[in-house]
Write a structure and sequence with these properties.
heterotetramer; A: globular; B: alpha/beta; 31% helix; 17% strand; globular; binds thiamine diphosphate; binds iron/sulfur cluster; binds magnesium ion
């Protein structure tokens, strides 16, 4: 079983609810589901959609063309003309067939022009009818849905359009073959506490399933599989959870897409539930979350939190991170254990604020004036986000330096099922504490590994300054101390490099030897792993050099892997192939073959597969991916 | 035993600088309050004023230009039992840091902000600071100041500080007294401290101020404190604002306004954060004896359990 | 003739006046003089000094040990124990011999401890007497100066200490052999408008010269050489001048060392004097300078200025630049012609705010989230600063992108003599203007070189947004337009790379083939050129690959030069050899030999020479320079 | 010919959003002032409010969150004949941009600041903005607002804006009228515009405001204008401040305070910058016909000539 699904409609039109409904029902019946949300920087009206995949196992990637295409409004059809093919069933509202492209003012002007061109060039009129004709020509099966009738049948006195999302989701579930009772359960879950809404939507589900059966599109009901307890988490949620597990007790933030959902999630769970045995007799309390006046405040307030010994962090995305550069440099200079979760979105500037990007790696590695050590690493799956978020807090504590944890927007907005949170994979690590007493050398130079004993305000007297300082933390301009402090700070990075296990930095996934070696970081991990399987079926062997840490950089390992590889393809969601640049800087190896995408949309299995074959067949050195609406 | 809050680090302010008086007032205030060595944190930005923490025998952070307030708030909210004092310049707090000054009024986290008001940027050699009046030309300016001045007392009151006062760095006993009250006040306090900079400000000199300052509480009817259901609340507020405009021949020092009605941020947090009062973040254990997490992931994220 | 001179005393004690006095007198008598100022981040009391060199020709570098060492206070002697040798004459105040190190509280604690160690280990007492003994042991000639007596003799009712700086400078001039009348002229020049001060100081000069003659240290009076008109400029001044020449009419700044002197200089010269003929019939006016509330404002206000078509800039150093990252990204996205003059000082964080550093190169190259083109280049001499500042404005205008002009603190605070400002080397270049009218495509995609026609507020209607935008400047999320805009923006960088002449990017100075090829950027240029001459005398040939531009990077040229070089030595004032990293990234060439300095002090001819020989003799791959107090 | 200041770009605000009214008031004000297409620049930050410039048929820049004021000032000071209008959100101007808001009061460059006051962060989905009152819980907040609110009128008056008013986005004619006066006023103006956000602010709705707002100038004695040597200057100031606190059952809209005494920054610049009035930077030629510099280096830097 493998269904790729797209559900689209206007922002504010319940797309998320539809996706949740499908996700919940699929998950409870024991199957796997993964989804990504794409939306405009707009509150109401512009086109938004969820791209999902439902499988027997837990999917790792998404794919075009989709099998089930649900258009809750006409714009969705116009926006996705090319996302369907002979494998697709297109669910649309029959009453909108006359709708003209010209009326679709919420479609971006240039997109609209492009749609017009496609339809006209292919001889179709620029209406939904024409668009459906085009889709049909591409092989798609059209399934007109009497949305309004179904809604009215189920809830005679309701506003029909309020149920379109439920109808789309329910018919989707019916096509997949999910037992209706799971759909009903999902409704109760989603609208918990609103009894009337639940009842109405259950009726809508019922009518929708009946419609699917009547139209002969309903799939055979799939057997419910036994399934363990699962969490449905986004990358944002997973990072929030990992932070709590890792001991975070103070987080500051200023609202920004796609970062603030993490902080909101922490806030909603700030009053932690404890593991009875382990937590017994410990001093426990809630997490403090502060919405600050801006990101300058956010980073500096988090630094303040770290000074009292609290595991502190902030989360932001590009524009906010730019404002944090000065604070980061201070944290580097003053050896403050600080975590910044950096959600990358499409830049530069405000850019594509709700779209994907991996264009902040070099900035993260170099942000802030002057030279200071930092740890920069990234996650590639929702599951990784949990453990990485906890690790970030450890790194900060152990090496007393700022840690930047990169999560791309695509991952932040990916909904994944997590069945196991393995607490044995998390150990909360700290460093030696200075002796209590009056004058401690917070910056003791007499260390093997560069890490001086730690202490906190409220415990010891010590000083700090962003100026160069002596061991006590007082300003110094002595040239020798200056040199030794610089050396001490950088020694910590060597220590980190030595101590952090290789698998937390880079992993070679798959066979040691292969026809193609992919290199990537972040959310392309899943799709590439699927591409590797696809290639295998075609008799092509491939493996993946999956990079996680960029500072300290696993130079030897990467050099080793790449110097033995036959064909290396770098896959990134940016314009300048930033990870490849780092590889070149550290290893001297210049990766010529690249698959890049910078239009802000998520990478899919199919487009990577196609491009990899193009490169393998020497049709191209570099492919720029353009899919996604 | 009384903790000595002065240390023996070389102070490198210019001879005659008003900062010395502030340092003395601050350290004696802390001492007279009988605070211990681990009860206090002093946080500064950058400027001559920013050097203060190094001279105080307590935990101190000399942070970034304009950012002392956010750092101080981070310290305060994670460890609310600490007395957290910000020592900042007028440029530091009202120019580059003005956004935080305003926000902290709204937040009212319970920190004490001492603003070293010398009307110039001392450490960068005498440019105009936000308290220098329009048209005034201090000695290092190429031309008269082209900016209008901020009224710091009014700004502090209007943005929500619940304790607002003015001191003079050469009235050390008086200033010390204000600092003592401010430090013990639960809400955030703001003290505008008239601080002559003999090196760059040849207008607002020690003598200039000495001729002009007078104490608000010399007037025995002066009552700046607003309490719950105070019928005179509005009157007191307006009078404080009005007083804040007095400048010229006579310059008032003392407490302008105290608002006991508004709960500080730390009070507000108690409503939402488990055990915030008894076990604030800085007092928490975050791991079990063997270093394991103590958070139950499924129970804590119960609402995200889908199956 | 070649005199290296050091004049030291307390901050606020008139060191600058002494340096000016020497400089002016030397210059007017037709000789060359160069100096660098070193000072603490402190207003009054801490140690500060000027390192100068006087030659027949214009010096390019400074050197230790110095020939004339002038201590206006005891701290100066303690601070510079090792900067003298048998070539040195030490001028000091006889009455301070009993002064104990312990009393010198303005010396940084660690420095004091180091001095104590040196004196004690060498068997001297920790007083000025001991220190002088140590200096004598190093071969220095001691010249006790009765400062107070000379002052009192000249100005019986004055405060003697107010004249110490004049005394020190005047005796220095006498030793060099500068005709007294030039010293008198210099006094009149420096204290212009203060008649009494002039008279008093002239008397002090007279008494000092007499003292020098009596003590038999006065040199033979040098003949006055004919000399053209000259400007005495710092790097700050030169950049200010270059900006005015290049058409700057709006500059914003927030005070910060060592950048704000540039803005102050512009402000002092904001009412320009015009070249009669060229400027006739043109619309002319003064320059607007604004001291802003912070650097966020400074960069954004400069952007605002650029939007009305005015050549606009801002100047800052590390901490301020960190705050500009977001604005920079906006300027990159919106193709704003903006110049940021970035004065590098010792970082990270507040660091060594009044000391030298070249540790912001990678940050300048990567500051701001997302990917956008920018030009990053640097100057190495005061003279270059003039033309480069003017060029920066051209680059910004021609390629419609932010331009970062790097000047290190050492250069900013170098006083140099400039005899010619060659206006023929400056051409003010602009780009095509959009037609007047209502709707212009400010971001016209239909360009060969990526540069769309320019226009300004007040002239056309057009829009701008930090979001990705269409040709009119309206927000778009269309994925194709997005791709084309990214490509268009980066195409401008290719255009710049093609059009900017190689000599503005990198120059190979000296023989094509040499035993040593130095690589450097910024203010080490002068010292290295002198080192090359020194080496030549010892039969070692050397040349210099002098880098000016890092984006776009002159890859082919650098690769070409370095791949042919025998021994390459990278010389930089930072910890991580940032230029060498860029060379590796672009050319793949890994420079193993390095001379680095990160203690914040200026590099001198002698220490580079010594280290280069060490490397040549294979005693070391990397030398960290430690000179300077 | 009258220039039409509305263009035909799709407006993507939510149905019923108060922003529509502001847009109409602004464009009709510009039109009624008979301004030409090249007389106006509209500068915004980021937020729903920040989209405004795209909908106005004039040069427009949609800049960075919080930075509209500095950009606007750069435009104004280099080309002072332009009418420069800032359209910003309450988060944009009073949270992340508060430092610039304060500084612009001191500067008073002659820009017009329209603050879209919806008490929430619209574009980021309804978090509390600085005008949301303490303890109020709008629909997207997980808990009641933990921050106190800023009084925007008082902040604007106290930091030096010389024209301070309040409008309501559903009183379009009234708002238009205020905007017209503000745009023509030489000093900087600040207009707090009550703007219902039906999507996220379910407390301060259109109806809620409609029941409460009244016009200051309904009271015929209301005179907010302070002129040179005005004997009532202080009284008017204090009255404006007092009025700014009126909130609850009755909310005043109209002009609170106008200060004609204080010269704008552009006036002050004239004293120091050659030809600033007749040939401001934007009107200058910077090169000769053949592209050569026109600045005489030695004459201009005469004081640096050493030989
Ligand atoms: C981001 C940043 N910008 C500028 C500076 C340079 N700077 C150091 S101190 C200072 C101003 C000091 O004035 P004030 O805050 O009034 O303190 P004072 O020295 O008068 O006590 C400035 C602008 C800096 N350190 N950081
Ligand atoms: C530096 C930065 N931080 C955060 C954001 C995200 N952001 C976009 S709009 C906005 C707030 C909008 O609220 P407001 O200013 O009140 O405008 P409104 O949408 O209510 O009109 C925020 C925080 C950003 N764009 N830039
Ligand atoms: S410059 Fe002014 S404020 Fe700074 S130490 Fe000297 S006198 Fe004090
Ligand atoms: S979110 Fe609120 S402010 Fe934004 S467009 Fe919608 S209604 Fe208007
Ligand atoms: Mg000051
Ligand atoms: Mg708002």
């Amino acid at each position: 079983m493998d269904f790729n699904i797209l559900i689209g409609g206007p922002q504010g039109g319940g797309i998320d609810t539809a996706a949740n409904l499908v996700g919940k029902a699929v998950a409870t019946s024991g199957y796997g589901v993964l989804s990504v949300r794409e939306y405009h920087s707009n509150i109401k009206g512009r086109h938004s959609y969820t791209h999902m995949r439902v499988m027997d196992k837990q999917p790792r990637s998404l794919k075009y063309p989709v099998n089930i295409f649900v258009a809750l409004d006409p714009d969705t059809i116009f926006e996705h003309l090319d996302d369907v093919s002979e494998v697709s069933t297109v669910l649309y509202d029959k009453t909108t067939e006359d709708y003209d492209l010209q009326a679709a003012r919420m479609i971006m002007r240039d997109t609209s022009a492009k749609i017009r061109r496609i339809l006209t060039e292919n001889g179709f009129e620029t209406t939904i009818r024409g668009a459906l004709g085009y889709m049909k020509k591409r092989g798609a099966k059209l399934l007109p849905i009497p949305f309004s009738d179904i809604a009215t049948e189920a809830v005679p006195d309701g506003t029909p359009s309020r149920y379109y999302n439920t109808i789309g989701a329910a018919i989707t579930l019916a096509i997949i073959g999910i037992d209706r009772k799971f759909a009903d359960d999902a409704i109760s879950y989603i609208f918990k506490g609103k009894q009337q809404v639940v009842e109405e939507n259950v009726k809508v589900v019922d009518a929708s399933y009946r419609f699917a059966e009547d139209s002969k599109v309903a799939g055979k009901t799939l057997p419910a599989l036994p399934t363990p307890r699962k969490l449905l988490l986004t990358g944002n949620d997973a990072s929030a959870l990992g932070k709590l597990l890792g001991g975070l007790r103070f987080q500051t933030y200023y609202p920004i897409t796609p970062a603030s959902d993490e902080s909101t999630t922490i806030e909603e769970h700030q009053n932690i539930k404890w593991i009875g045995k382990e937590a017994e007799n410990l001093r426990k309390g809630g997490v403090v979350i502060v919405q600050t006046e801006d990101e300058l405040s956010a980073i500096n307030m988090a630094i303040g939190g770290a000074l009292t010994g609290v595991r502190s962090a902030t989360a932001t995305s590009g524009p906010g991170f730019s404002l944090m550069a000065e604070g980061l440099s201070f944290a580097g200079m003053d050896e403050v254990p600080l975590v910044v979760t950096f959600y990358e979105r499409g830049g530069p500037s405000t850019g594509l604020p709700t779209r994907n990007g991996q264009s902040d790696l070099l900035f993260a590695l170099n942000a802030g004036h002057g030279e200071y050590p930092r740890i920069v690493f990234s996650s590639g799956t929702v599951d990784e986000c949990i453990y990485d978020a906890a690790k970030a807090l450890n790194y900060a504590a152990k090496y007393q330096m700022p840690v930047i944890h990169l999560i791309d927007k695509n991952l932040a907005n990916t909904l994944d099922l997590i069945s196991k949170v393995d607490l044995d994979r998390i150990k909360i690590e700290t460093v030696e504490l200075a002796k209590e007493g009056d004058d401690v050398k917070r910056y003791d130079l007499n260390t093997e590994n560069g890490v001086s004993p730690y202490t906190t305000m409220g415990r010891n007297i010590f000083w700090m300054t962003g100026d160069e300082h002596d061991e006590l933390g007082h300003v110094t301009e002595d040239s020798d101390i200056r040199d030794r402090m610089m050396e001490k700070r950088f020694k910590k990075l060597e220590t980190a490099d030595r101590e952090i296990p290789l698998e937390e930095k880079a992993v070679l996934i798959g066979e040691k030897e292969a026809d193609i070696t992919f290199v990537t970081w972040g959310s392309q991990k899943g799709p590439i792993l699927d591409v590797i399987e696809d290639l295998k079926e075609e008799g092509i062997s491939a493996n993946l050099l999956y990079l996680k840490m960029f500072s300290p950089f696993p130079t030897e390992f990467v050099k080793n892997v790449l110097s033995k590889a036959s064909l290396v393809i770098d896959v990134e969601s940016n314009y300048t192939a930033q990870a490849a640049q780092m590889i070149k800087l550290y290893t001297g190896i210049d990766i010529k073959n690249k698959i890049l995408k910078y239009n802000g949309r998520h990478m899919t299995e199919d487009e990577i597969l196609k491009s990899a074959k193009e490169i393998l067949n020497k049709e191209s050195l570099m492919v720029v991916l353009e899919d996604g609406s | 035993m009384v903790h000595n809050f002065r240390n023996d680090i070389t102070v490198d302010w210019c001879p005659g600088c008003g900062d010395f008086g502030i340092l003395t007032a601050l350290t004696s205030a802390l001492q007279e309050l009988n605070l211990g060595p681990h009860d206090v944190a002093v946080i500064s930005g950058i400027g001559c004023s920013g050097k203060t923490p190094h001279y105080v025998n307590a935990a101190g952070a000399h942070t970034l230009h304009g950012r002392a307030i956010p750092v101080a708030v981070g310290v305060k909210l994670t460890n609310p039992k600490l007395k957290v004092i910000v020592t900042g310049g007028d440029g530091d707090l009202m120019s580059i840091g003005a956004g935080h000054l305003v926000a902290e009024g709204r937040r009212n986290s319970g920190i004490t902000v001492l603003m070293y008001d010398n009307a110039v940027y001392g450490l960068t050699k005498g440019q105009a600071a936000p308290t220098l009046k329009l048209g005034v030309q201090t000695k290092s300016l190429a031309r008269p100041n082209i900016y209008d001045a901020i009224n710091p007392i009014m700004l502090a009151i209007s943005t929500g500080y619940s304790f607002v006062a003015r001191g003079f760095s050469f009235e050390i006993a008086h200033l010390k007294n204000i600092i003592k009250q401010a430090v013990m006040f639960p809400g955030s306090s703001f003290i505008d401290i008239l601080q002559p900079c003999p090196t760059y400000n040849n207008i607002n000199t020690m003598d200039w101020y000495k001729k002009r300052v007078y104490k608000l509480d010399d007037d025995k009817t002066w009552d700046p404190v607003v309490t719950e259901n105070d019928p005179k609340a509005e009157e007191k507020y307006n009078r404080a604002i009005e007083k804040s405009f007095e400048w010229g021949d006579r310059i008032p020092i003392g407490i302008f306004y105290v608002n006991k009605k508004i709960p500080p941020f730390t009070e507000r947090l108690k409503q939402y954060v488990d055990n915030y009062e008894s076990v604030p973040p800085a007092a928490q254990d975050v791991k079990s004896k063997d270093g394991k997490p103590i958070v139950d992931p499924f129970e804590t994220f119960k609402d995200k359990i889908i199956v």
